[in-house]
Amino acid sequence: MLKKLPLAQLETIANDIREDIIRMLEHAGSGHSAGPLGLADIFTALYFDILKHDPKNPDWPERDILLLSNGHCVPVRYATMAHAGYFDRKELMTLRQLGTRLQGHPERKRLPGMETTSGPLGSGLSQACGMALALRMDNQQHRWVYVVMGDGEQDEGNVWEAAMLAGKEKLHNIIAITDRNNIQIDGPTESVMPLEDLKAKWEAFGWHVLEIDGNDIEAVIDACAMGRAIENKPVMIIAHTIPGKGVDFMEYDFNWHGKPPNKEEAKKALHELRTLGGKIKGEHE
Amino acid sequence: MSDMYLVDVSGNLTSEPIRKGFGRGLLEAGKRWDNVVAACADLTDSTQMSLFAEEFPERYIEIGVAEQNLVTTGSGLAAMGKVPFVSSYAAFMPGRCWEQIRTTICLNDRPVKLIGSHAGVSVGPDGATHQMLEDLALMRVLPNMVVLAPCDSVEAEKATLAMALDKRPNYMRLAREATPIITTDKTPFEIGPAYVLTEGADVSLIATGTMTYQALVAAEELKKDGIQAEVVHVPTIKPLDAGTILASVRKTGAVVTAEEGQIVGGLGGAIAELLSEEQPAPIKRIGMRDRFGESGAPDKLLEYFGLDARHIRLAAHSVVDKK
Ligand SMILES: Cc1ncc(C[n+]2csc(CCOP(=O)(O)OP(=O)(O)O)c2C)c(N)n1
Ligand SMILES: [Mg+2]
Question: Is the CB of A183 within 6 Å of ligand 1?
Fold first, then answer.
């Protein structure tokens, strides 16, 4: 397991992950920008604090499970896994190329530590239910199943089938995190297909719901700790994030859901990330 | 294999729904192996999972009417080392949840055991919505998937135990109505082989599921016409036992396939694909031809849609004439 780090260091890691996401996507020439950038703080919190895992032993039987249900956001997971020591950061530049372990959407069989194959939306939570049920049958409920899901993803009926099952079975070792960035492909979630009152919906399905700022690493860590203390219900953390976070011209803009930066845009984005939006002088300037 | 198997089809036969054999097999699998678990979508009795559910309530999960969640929860159970059997009517599973099966079970390579009950027009009065005809095609196109259609309840029981030990994703098709029992406890069964049930030199009758019995009856009748038919039973539709099938067709030079489903993509499609590449021969395919079923008594429907021994016999004559 990794040593716990102070907050300032986690924030630096999250920023480095954002830079890697920009580089990977620019190099690949395709892929999703907004979601992964918005999720960098959550993934940093997960891999560097919350999860019980071992990058050198990805199949460690005592590990927690992390499922990425919104598979299109996988660049953030690849970048975080590389920073955590699962593989060399150089491999990040193979994203989406022939023969790579870093497929455009994640494939379990190609990359140790990738717990499942995803991309088609709506199926992560059901898998978490199956895993949590198996853990309960085996008296292994000290292991946690974390699921990251999109908000637009929750248009899928399969999500609510799983929500009902987890509620019915009181699968309290599931902690789901909704990336509430308010965008999906065709526009803002509330105009494509309104999700609100999202908190009330999950509560009505028998879940304990927490709402946090998903770009606040400490808040993510605290919410997961609180979630683990809930003993009779599955937990949903609605994490409000800024899509495209850290890159001014991408932030809040649904048009960046599924496109990569070109060379110029990448340069601009990296400059912004390095200088924290002009607040500091970039070290590589 | 005639002495090990077979109940003589011209004698008195006992009939039983194929799904009953599955129910017994699952119960037995549960007794033998702790990691066998089961889940169903509000059809526990119909699919015969009830025997297991009563014996092992802590290893049984009621999912409710939610087939997408059924198969995907199955993927999660398998991820943690369980051998999950999940069941519903074939019309709904795999009918409603093909993409989840594709991504979370096949591409993900999780050994989930899918049981599609009430397949074929012999479902009867419930009509076209419930008479699943496309399941074999849907499952056969998926990489990693193994596709099974046992011919009777005795074979279904053996197939269930074999599935519990198989490390791949599996689909097994079951039927609702009583089907004559033609195999015995001693009849061999493994996932993979096709079985030559009766030998003959003139035509290969290649059948699966409920139609294997009809093929045996047709073979008896063809004897009266002076035609020696070889009945090849194909309980494993994927991976197909090309060796046994090609050996039979090399000998006979004429083929009839028979199944209770769409010939496109089903057993008929599979055999035609194999033969056209390896051993072209006159072929007729008995099955549904690009249409849906409808309400009616099972035996009336089988006759109406040409899914019986009489039609197999006629088809055999036509391919023998073309040789
Ligand atoms: C079953 C399925 N349907 C459609 C898609 C195409 N798709 C990919 S991402 C996406 C939008 C999802 O929105 P959200 O989960 O909010 O992701 P975000 O845009 O915030 O990254 C869609 C429709 C898909 N991947 N899977
Ligand atoms: Mg979104």
Answer: yes
